[in-house]
């Protein structure tokens, strides 16, 4: 009887010890996962892959202004509990303090596990990117996201035990109502009148030159242009008076004057000769 009671007591103690070990192990595994990132989250690209994939994680924003580099770690079950480096130490490729940037794993999950003498197991892993001041080796902020291995060879970004997130995108419809501009232009006809009078010179009493000429030029506007309603007219009227010559009536006054002088001279000479002859005829006293 006592032996049975002793055996039952030993069995109870063993069961209790197993429960304690399980709780301690579970607590240790949970404690190994880092807290959510202080600066934001990460997006895994591609969202699904294999353990041989070297994924890219993209930060939700830039690092802090007092940092100049980053480093990535992966936390998870087994040998990943303390966090294994997923990049070749500190990196500054694509680093930014003003906008989101991508972080490329330099190894696949299988290679990370192999280099650290462990294996990839099914479970939840946490990827953490830390912003670092390379001079002081101080972490200034972190980004995190979960990576779920449904089996040792395949991962996905969404929690397999939860409902996949539904993304609803609404595209704003922009309705633009525009009326073509109507331009109405009215231009008054521009009239240009030019008159040229030819100076009349009287070089003789019998010669008069007068010329009169009227010329009119009118420009009719073209039809309406396309793309608007417009009315325009331009008219140019020019009047000029060219020379016209009337018929000559008589000999040029110059010739008449010269003839008169010749005749007058001839008459004077004849008069002198006549007087001398008369004087010669009269006897002297």
From TrEMBL:
UniProt keyword list: Membrane, Signal, Transmembrane, Transmembrane helix
Region (Disordered) location: 154-236
Signal peptide interval: 1-31
Biased composition (Low complexity): 160-223
Sequence intervals crossing the membrane: 253-273
UniProt-recorded name of the protein: Gram-positive cocci surface proteins LPxTG domain-containing protein
